[in-house]
Amino acid sequence: MLMEFFLLFISGGFDNRLRENVEYLEELAEREGVSQRVKFITSCSTAERNALLAQCLCVLYTPMPMKPVIACNSWGPVETVKHGVTGYLCDPSPRECALAMSKFIQDPHVAEKMGRDAC
């Protein structure tokens, strides 16, 4: 599968006092030429969240039922994510996270299996 067919959604609890964080990430995506592939959802309803989770290939860090996790190999995730079994633990670099994401994109069945194994 080609990477240009995929989107990265960044969603979560948004604090209006920290709008500059989202603005920074939007500017970074623009500067890196990926702003058309990265979507920021600062707040969403439970139904919207569930729809996103149902359609996603994997979840980054936030463990969810039936979804593999991609996380940095430090602190809490090391205790809960089994590398190569329930997700991928990566060095904290954009390249490492991108490589882990590309593994799921190249073979979505791996993501499905890891999601099942995570339960």
UniProtKB/TrEMBL annotation:
Alphabetically ordered keywords of this record: Glycosyltransferase, Transferase
Annotated Gene Ontology cellular component terms: endomembrane system
InterPro entries, A to Z: ALG2 (IPR027054), Glyco_trans_1 (IPR001296)
Molecular function, one GO term: GDP-Man:Man(1)GlcNAc(2)-PP-Dol alpha-1,3-mannosyltransferase activity
Superkingdom field: Eukaryota
Domain Glycosyl transferase family: 8-117
Pfam families (alphabetical): Glycos_transf_1
Presence of the UniProt keyword Repeat in the record: no
UniProt protein name: Glycosyl transferase family 1 domain-containing protein
